[in-house]
Design a protein that fits this description.
Layout: E1 2-3, H1 11-20, H2 23-26, E2 34-40, E3 54-59, H3 63-68, H4 73-82, E4 96-103, E5 111-117, H5 125-141, E6 148-154, E7 169-175, H6 178-183, H7 188-196, E8 207-215
Antiparallel strand pairs: 1-3, 2-3, 2-8, 4-6, 5-7, 5-8, 6-7
Length: about 220
């Protein structure tokens, strides 16, 4: 779930509260299996307006368990706490299916890139997801400096009744260092991967943020 900080709140104060205070409430949710916060690197704010101030990831055994929390007393406490540091009007929950393309150890001081992915308008969801996973996935995984690569595909329920989610998914790519990321474009595998994006991704809507991952649970 992408998040934006409350209007007028400094990035440093937002990240500190999110990391040190908010987990106290989140960890009370019943059935929560895993919880990760992704904080944009501070340097990113000096170059441009970032598409998000962070991405929260939660894992659940099933959607029913997750939804049950919405009627619990903890949920009211969660909402009240979010109002202290988040712009709740911008929250966009997206249920996804995780597809692991590559999974190798990442350095403790490593980081990851989260790409916000939208399909080409001419493609059906099925064709988009199939190409992303089975054609593009192996290409991205072949880039030498990439340590981990996970695709998060929007669940088909997000499209029911003619609905369209805010995006079609998130690509998450881990590197050991900034140098590894910066030299990746020199590889033939990287060039082939980027060239393939035009076959299924709407490049005009493609955006990204470089983050530090914090595994809370």
């Amino acid at each position: 779930m992408p998040v934006r900080r409350r209007k007028g709140m400094a990035v440093e104060a937002f990240q500190d509260y999110w990391l040190t205070r908010h987990p106290e409430v989140v960890l009370k949710l019943d059935g929560l299996q895993r919880y990760v916060q992704n904080h944009p690197l501070p340097g990113g704010y000096t170059k441009r307006e970032l598409p998000v101030d962070g991405v929260a990831e939660t894992w659940w055994p099933d959607t029913e368990t997750m939804k049950r929390n919405a009627s619990s007393p903890v949920w009211a406490e969660l909402v009240a706490d979010e109002e202290k540091f988040l712009d709740r009007s911008s929250l966009q929950l997206l249920l996804v299916e995780e597809h692991v393309m590559k999974d190798e150890p990442v350095a403790e001081d490593g980081f990851k890139i989260i790409e916000i992915v939208n399909r080409l308008p001419r493609l059906s969801v099925d064709r988009f997801q199939d190409h992303w996973e089975n054609v593009h996935g192996p290409l991205g995984a072949s880039i030498p400096n990439v340590r981990r690569y996970i695709q998060n595909h929007a669940r088909l329920s997000a499209y029911m009744g003619g609905r369209e989610p805010e995006c079609d998914g998130y690509a998450m790519v881990w590197f050991n260092s900034m140098d590894d990321m910066r030299t990746s474009p020199e590889s033939a595998a990287y060039k082939t991967t980027v060239a393939d994006e035009a076959n299924f991704i709407d490049g005009k809507r493609l955006d990204f943020v470089i983050v530090k991952e914090h595994v809370i649970k």
